[in-house]
Every structure is written in C-alpha cells, then in structure tokens.
Design goal:
Radius of gyration: 25 Å
Structural class: alpha/beta
Strand content: 15-25%
Number of strands: 13
Number of helices: 15
CATH topology of the largest domain: Rossmann fold
Strand order of the largest sheet: 6-7-5-8-9-10
CATH architecture of the largest domain: 3-Layer(aba) Sandwich
Shape: globular
Number of domains: 4
CATH class of the largest domain: Alpha Beta
Order of helices and strands: EHHEHEHEHHHHEHEEHHEHEEHEHEEH
Bound molecules: guanosine-5'-triphosphate, magnesium ion
Helix content: 40-55%
C-alpha cells in the first residue's frame, strides 16, 4: 500500500443470518491484523450489519454517511471492507466516499504479493491478481477517465477494454504455462523425495499458529518465525529424525484463514497438492488465540475442500507458555506444546513416530514380474489399495511400513 493510503478505516460487515452467529470482536481483530500486515495504519474500525444488501453499494445510504463522517474526522484515506465487493459496488462506494475502497480479497492479495519470495509464489500471486482484475476492467477504466479530468464519462471505448482484456488473458496463459513448468519440477522433486521412501508429514494450520516455529524447533532448520499473517507462502521440506532414528520429511505450508479467497486457493493449488501428497498431517493450533475453535473449524473445512480429511492427523495446541493458553478438551486427544519453551516437543516426536509407524508410507509402485517376491512382501506387511498387472510389471498402490518403504523407493511409479 502506498503512503497516501496508509491511514485507513476498517469496516466489518455482517450479512443477514451470519450477523447473528459471527463474533464481532474476533472478526474485527482479525481484520485489524490483516490490515497491519498489509502495512496500513488503522485510524478506526466499525462493524455494520446489513439486513438487505443493496445491489449497487452493498450497504445502505445511512451507513455510507456514517463511514464518510468517520473518514473525515479521522482523516482516513481508504476504507477496508471485510467482505468481497462486486466491481460495481466497489466503484459506487469509491464514488460516494471519495476514497479508495479495498475489499477482503484485495487486502489478502496485497499481503500475499508482499510476502511472495520465490518465483513460484510470485507467479501464483500475479495469476490470482489478474484473475481478480479481469472482471473489474471496465469499472477501472470508468474510474480512470473520471480521475483524468472527466475526459469522457463513458470511459474508453469497448475496443480499448477488449484489447486490455486480451492482453491480460495472454499474460494469464503465460503465467499458467510457467506455473505448469514449476508444477512438473515440483512433482519431480516430490517423487525423488518419495524414492527415499521416507514418510511425509505436512504442517498445516491457521495463519500465525506457529507452523514455521514448530518446523524450526523440531528440525533446527527453517526461516525464523514472524509475527505477521501469511509469513509462509511457499512450502519448505526438511528432514526430521524420529526417536528411533527413522527419518521423515516435514513440510511447512501456507497458512489458512477463514473465507480464503477462492482465487487464491486455485492459484495455490500446487502448494496445496503438497499436503495431499503427505502420509500424516500435523495440525498446529494457536491455543492462546481467542478464536481458537473458529480457527480449527476453518482448517478442518479447508482440509475437507482439498480432499485430505481422510489422512491421519495429529492435532497440536501450541503456545502453552502464554497465560491465556486454553488446554484442549481431553476427548480431542490433542497434544500440548510450546515452540518457545520446548514444552511437549519430545512427546510430539514420539507420537509422530507411533502414528507414522502405524500408518506406513503411501506408495505407488511398479514391480517387475521377476520381483514377485517383493509383491508378496507388500501383501504380507503392508496394506494394498489397488493392483493392476501390465505386460512386464504390476502396478500396486499400497501403504507400506517405513522400513520396507526405503527398500521399495527405486520402484516408485512416476507415470
Ligand atoms: N508465545 C509463543 N509464541 C509463539 C510460539 N510459537 C510461535 N509463536 C509466535 O507466533 C507467531 C507466528 O509464528 P509462525 O511460526 O511464523 O507461525 P505460522 O503458523 O508459520 O504463520 P504463517 O506462516 O504466517 O501462516 C510468531 O510471532 C512466533 O514467534 C509459542 O510456542 N509461544
Ligand atoms: Mg509460517
């Protein structure tokens, strides 16, 4: 965000039925945190209940007036809405308020753009930004013509908008191609990791829960933790030796947030695929957050959305050193840790070992017919999910014990 826009007013919107169950304070504090991470200075915040959304502006005339008067008295240069706005709603609100209006997706995209470090991260963010921009193009042109001194109230001709649209679509298809290349490189890295036969454990959780801190505490590697949302965008994998010296691979991933823009989910598909490829999920929860249970629900929902809710999961309540930490209910069987003090980390490693041992490593193997005794071994000690015979070999999908997995690595099927 530029300097001119840094003094902002935050507006949390509660629509219809949602307004009854949403926790105003929690929603506001998360929005404040998002704005802070984006580099904005929050002058004030306000929550609004919308019973009957106005198609043109989403909120009513009286509410617009209220926002305007706060903006004037607090000298706000921009208004951030904790909701997605249609292009025309955004334009109309900007016109009425005489200020820049930022919606939830724009805000999160802005943070992602700031935090993207690797070329893959940058490609993913740019793709999501163009995807967001495309339907807004004609509205943007109308605004631009107005700002440029009323050159014409109709905005540029449809030809101009169409040609811009074409340019953006062209850029999008270049980005898609590049992302595809990154994706295939990533899948080669993944299968070469798989070849080692080590179990893969993915760290998932709400943003700021302490995933990166846990990765660092357990493995001694990884970037330093950061007190900002979405500090991690790109997955990072490190080796961790379990108490019985059996190595596993631990992958740190992008954090989740409630109402994650679907555009981002689509663009970050490759990153999320890393989670789908794991044997065990380690769900890190910020046990000291007042919105702890809401955050857990959000993560569980997203795990369901990306189709990994069947994977064995260990839930870890982090930040037990903080005074407002609330221990999880016993029935959840969750572990308690603190990456700050080191509390519970030994127990966590033991639990990881036991879950990984009982789960085994998921593998898709191509076993030559002359190695049929390996197939027998897999049947004996693993759990076979599918088996298909080809002309010279058998393709088997199975979960196999860790010690056998490392022997079978060379038979991984990449097709
Ligand atoms: N007090 C306390 N703070 C912690 C603990 N673990 C992590 N933190 C803090 O929580 C913040 C977030 O930590 P990260 O490890 O970056 O969290 P993350 O889940 O990787 O966050 P994203 O990558 O942004 O999704 C940082 O300020 C950490 O110092 C803990 O056990 N105790
Ligand atoms: Mg992180």
């Amino acid at each position: 965000m530029s300097e001119d826009e840094d003094q902002v007013l935050l507006v949390s919107l509660f629509l219809g039925i949602n307004s009854k169950c949403a926790n105003t304070r929690l929603v506001q504090s998360e929005l404040r945190e998002l704005a802070r991470t984006a580099g904005a200075r929050v002058a004030d915040s306000l929550s609004i209940t919308v019973r009957k959304p106005d198609p043109g502006t989403l909120i009513g005339k009286g509410q617009i007036q209220r926002i305007l008067s706060i903006c004037r008295s607090k000298k706000c240069r921009a208004v951030i809405f904790d909701h997605d706005l249609l292009p025309r709603q955004q334009t109309n609100l900007e016109k009425r308020l005489g200020r820049k209006v930022i919606d939830r997706t724009t805000l999160i995209l802005d943070i992602f753009a700031q935090q993207a470090r690797t070329s893959e991260g940058k490609l993913q963010v740019e793709r999501a930004q163009i995807d967001y921009l495309l339907p807004r193009l004609s509205q943007l042109w109308v605004q631009f013509s107005r700002l440029a001194g009323g050159i014409g109230t109709r905005g540029p001709g449809e030809t101009q908008i169409e040609s811009d649209r074409r340019e953006l679509r062209k850029r999008m298809s270049i980005l898609d191609k590049r992302l595809e290349r990154v994706r295939s490189r990533r899948s080669i890295t993944r299968s070469s990791r798989r070849k080692k036969g080590y179990p893969i454990v993915s760290l998932v959780g709400y943003t700021n829960a302490g995933k990166t801190s846990l990765m660092r505490s357990l493995t001694g590697h990884g970037p330093p933790a950061s007190d900002s949302l979405f500090a991690t965008l790109d997955p990072l994998t490190r080796q961790l030796d379990m108490p019985n010296s059996q190595p596993l691979l631990l992958t740190d991933t992008v954090g989740f947030i409630q109402r994650l823009p679907t555009r981002l989910i689509a663009s970050f598909r490759a990153t999320l695929e890393e989670i789908a490829d794991s044997d065990v999920i380690l769900h890190v929860v910020d046990g000291a957050s007042p919105s702890c249970s809401l955050q857990i629900d959000t993560v569980i929902e997203l795990l369901e959305d990306i189709g990994v809710s069947h994977l064995p999961t260990i839930t870890v309540y982090n930040k037990s050193d903080l005074p407002n930490f609330l221990a999880p209910p016993k029935r959840l069987g969750a572990l308690v840790v603190s990456t700050k003090s080191g509390y519970g980390l030994k127990e966590l490693k033991l639990e990881l070992q036991s879950v990984v041992d009982s789960t085994g490593v998921n593998m898709r193997l191509r076993i030559p017919f002359d190695k049929a005794r390996l197939l027998a071994l897999i049947y004996q000690s693993g759990s076979v999910k599918s088996l298909r015979h080809c002309t010279t070999d058998s393709i088997v999908e199975a979960s196999v014990p860790t010690e056998l997995a490392s022997r079978l690595g060379i038979y991984i099927d990449n097709s």
